[in-house]
Amino acid sequence: MQQLNIKKLLILLTALTVCGCGVLLGMLWLSSQKADHAFHIIVNEEEPVSAAFRDMYAQGLQTEQATRNVVLNPADDKAKKNYEAANQSFHEDLDLVRAKVQGPLKDGLPKLAELWDQAHKLKLEVMALAGEGKTAEAAELLRSKETPVWRDIKVVLAELTKLQDKRSAAILADYDSASKTMLTLALCGGALVMLLMTLACVYTGRRIHRPLTGCVDFSKRIANGDFSAELDIRLKDEIGELADAIRVMVDKLRKELAFSQGLMSGVAAPFSVFGPDDTLLYSNQAMTDLMEIPGKPEDYYGRGSGEFIFGEKSRETVSTRALREKKPLRSDADVETRTGKKRHVRISSSPFFGAKGQLLGTISIWLDQTEAVEAKLQAERAKTEGMIHAAQQLETIVEVISSASEELSAQIEQSSRGTEIQSQRVAETATAMEEMNATVLEVAKNASQAADSSAGAKAKAAEGAQVVKKAVESITEVQRKSVVLKDDMAQLGKQAEGIGQIMNVISDIADQTNLLALNAAIEAARAGDAGRGFAVVADEVRKLAEKTMTATKEVGDAVSGIQLGARKNLENVEHSVATIEQATDLANQSGEALTQIVSMVDVSTDQVRSIAAASEEQSAASEEIGRSIEDINRISGETASAMNESAQAVGELANQAQTLRTIIERMKTGG
Predict the structure, then answer these.
(1) Could you state, in order of their start, the residue ranges of all structural domains in the chain?
(2) What is the pLDDT of residues 470-485, one digit of tens each?
(3) How far apart are CA 82 and CA 78, in angstroms?
(4) Strand, helix or coil at 68?
């Protein structure tokens, strides 16, 4: 399976974030829409129908009571107006129910309307008889015909109310089930999105941060001179390309360094390289052999030139003066080795500088002229002991010096060519460093673009959080309306209880009236014939009181039914309020989940920015290595220049040897 590069990986992470937020927002929006639709049906369809049925029952009771009041008092205009208002309200409720219900409920409405019309005609007839003074006939009609019809109306209303309550309960149950299902799916979806985001962030961090840190650490070790370090990163993405480029660069540096070290080791002439603080940076074995310095040259790296050459820290050397005066110096000197032997040497010390003119150090070449000086001394002694014998010896010595000079000249020429090759390869390495630096800059650019993409994903997630916030506000508004509806239902229950109290008072009045009628009948019986008329009236009053008690009991039963229905509706509304509160809490939790997603996207953006910063740091390290290579190139140039000067010195030595040979030839011929 082909591994994704960093750019594609970051684009995939951003797309995953946006899609996850979109799915979560879609589920929340769908849940909110379904909840709003169900609540709209409950509040605007089901509850008005239930209230209409209860009101029709109450209006029926009102017409019954008004009719009986007219029978008791035909001049009671208020009772007649109450009857008309109750009849009109009943028809309005009936029209509302017809417009909103379907099925069995609507099928039962024609029967209800027919019964109501019958009862209405009978009640009008009863009130007309009462108005004509036919109270007994009116009461008989009310008892025998109208009351049975009213009882049928109550039965039909009870059946319709029961059907409506079942319908409302079913809709509420469906609403609860759908809300719980959608909210469960939304929470599961949010949890899944958070899990995927967490795994993606962890994977991205391991995929990018670790190898990039490895590249940075490797580059720092190389910059500090640890060329034994190894970069074990093998990836097929931008970081893998960067690691490959770094490995190629370091391999070239190792080869060039090995070549330079081999070249320096191959130079036969004794020489040393000192830093700007006059401490030893490099020396070949020939230098330690010349001065009979014990141990290896590496044992003295970091020590001063006087301590390295003569074993005296405070002693000044030609290299010290060249550093101080910042110019090449040449000197012939008689020195003493570490074992006390005398040496006559010619010392050439030249400072070398960096690209910005900063002093980097000196290279010091020592040529041993001890044999030449001794030969000169032997030649002078030969003048007194025998010019010819001395000349023969001098000729042998001159041959040796000439041969050594030629060999040294050849070695210096070879070193010069090696230095030129080294300069070329260092230039190639500098070019490779520039290409690698361009690769690093491209990685930093891609990381910056990925950071911008992550910032866009964060903005989209923040917009999603605002949408969820608005959804929570809408659900909160629905909750507020439900609480208002709950309060209205509680007020309706209180009003029904007030009606019950009034009916209790009416019942007490009827009891008192019945008692008074009984007392009046007793007094009429005592009065004999004179009290017969009064006894008849008392009997009628007693019957009327009994009817009033019966009607009061029926009204009390009706009020109890209203109270029971009000309590059921109040419980349903309270259940709806609780469900909406749960939906509000879950929506708030969804909003918090989105906020956490925004935070995670923010963390992802910070990681990408860290990657960009690390890439910039890598670029800086690459530039530092490039400058080091330029310094090596410059040092190689200075070394080549010093080698040329050495070649000139060796050439002069060869010329002197040739001149000495000519003189010896003249001495042999006596000239």
Answers:
(1) 9-193, 271-357, 384-668
(2) 766 766 776 676 666 5
(3) 6
(4) helix
